[in-house]
Amino acid sequence: MRRIAWWLVLVGLAACSDEKNLVPLDWELNRMTQQARYTDFKPGPGFRDGRVLQPPPAGTVPVDRVIGPTTLTLGITDAGDYVDTFPIPITTELIELGRNRFERTCAACHGILGTSETEVASKMTLRPPPSLQKASIRGNPVGRIYQVTTFGYGLMPGYAIQLNLEERWAVVAYVRALQLSQNARLTQLPPDLRQRFRSEVP
Ligand code: HEC
Prior knowledge:
The chain is an all-alpha fold. The protein has helices at about 1-20, 70-75, 90-105, 105-110, 120, 135-140, 140-150, 165-185, 190-200; strands at about 150-155, 155. Strands 1-2 form a two-stranded antiparallel sheet. It is elongated. InterPro entries: Cyt_c-like_dom, Cyt_c-like_dom_sf.
């Protein structure tokens, strides 16, 4: 019994001295932003070249970079020609995504129908955006439209930052759908739509 009592006293003392050693934190003075640290682009002793910020090792790839065939990433073949067929499957969902991104990203200049009859275009005196319904642009391979969307063309900026790879191909697919919508022949419509057109359009 006595032994246990001594033991308890010792444990109690240890707990007291531990508390005494604690340095109270002043959350104003000890914020991480105010603590001693090395800063980017400043010298630092941690590495042999004395720099804090180390260049990434050769061949480092950003985590979000899509790696794959150039037909998919650049819209060109190994021989350097624009691809003329889509490198990803075209689904209704993809075209819907394309519609959303086109209307959000491109339509301010090129218009909802791609005719480029817009307020913005009318104010562009230098070189207004061309109609995407123009025969020459309709004749462009999809790889070219993808390149324009990704890297820009002349006065038009690229949209690789705003749209990821899938969204850019979706926009190209939607541009094709828009072009078809304004240039389709009646005989190209499915029979039920052809019927509806005949009954509704005088
Ligand atoms: C800020 C206005 C603006 C926006 C937004 C814009 N464009 Fe353009 N676009 C232009 C202009 C201006 C040109 C003509 C550039 C030139 O000739 O220098 C052009 C040209 C083009 C061409 C023709 C290029 C060729 O090969 O001749 C295509 C295709 C095109 N745009 C597609 C798009 C798509 C797709 C988007 C959306 C991702 C988009 N544009 C967004 C202004 C815009």
